[in-house]
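It would be a great kindness if you could assist me with a short task in structural biology. The matter concerns a single protein, recorded as an amino acid sequence and a row of backbone structure tokens. The record follows directly beneath this note:
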Amino acid sequence: MNKIQKKTLIKNTARDLIALGSIPFFILVLARIYILAQPDYFIKITFSGFLFIILSFIFKTNIYSGLGLITGFFLSYHYKDIKFTIFSILAYILLITSLIYLKESKKKIFFGILLGVIASLISFIL
């Protein structure tokens, strides 16, 4: 594999990891949660996601860093399995690393994380 192919592979892998914080992936997670027939849990994660999306458009944050955090947090809370939680944290770290590698604004990434935490906490408390 030459340098150009290696760089292309790394860039494509980074984009794939970022997809874990995308709106289509979030909707896929919502569909899975809906199937579980646990309305309280579904309402919490839905509220958190929509609150974050609204806030992220107002404050111009990175949507992937926030939705990835919300998805990881609520799925880890639901499964309550240390192995899944560790996997989720590692996947999220790779998502953030990928955003930085692809030269996304660190300020927008940080505020996406911050708004993701805020939206998760508000939804979790309510």
